[in-house]
What we know:
Layout: H1 10-15, E1 23-26, E2 29-32, H2 38-55, E3 61-65, E4 69-71, E5 74-76, E6 80-84, E7 106-110, H3 117-129, E8 134-139, E9 144-148, E10 155-158, H4 176-181
Amino acid sequence: MLESLPKLTLSEFLKLPETKPASEYIEGKVYQKIMPKGKHSTIQIFLASTINTQSIPSKKGYAFGELRCTFGGRSLVPDISVFTWDRIPLDENNEIENTFNLHPNWIIEILSPNQISIRVIDNILFCLDNGTKLGWLIDPQERIILIFRPRMQPITKQDGDLLPVLDFLSDWQVSVRDIFSCLTLDF
């Protein structure tokens, strides 16, 4: 957390310059995300590109990495935000908008070493309470993925367990093992 800053409003926060790694605005406080390490970055790029390979040709969805999403009084930067095609904001030139003032359909977070998981889980739950349909919390250290859905208990998936995806990707089957296989470069 950026302790030196006094409590800010959301509009004041959005006027601040972007930080690296990104900062998030949660209930008047600013929290800087942890710098991604090798496993985190590998999983993030692998998953976003795999989801896009499955969804872009049919124009059903798009996975964005490190996209600022501002909604419900928070401004979050999920590791991966997946939006259905029809919800992607476009500007007057019919190009993807720079500002996303809406919740993602699917949020994927990947734990980094020493990252506080409770804050990440809180962000996933916040997204679910504001319209997100699916959340994954990936723990590379434990090789476990927690699945979150609105108004349901989280479910732990590991090894060869198949993972739930959004309806428009129902033809795509992916297991926990498939995701972690990218870390050994055996895919």
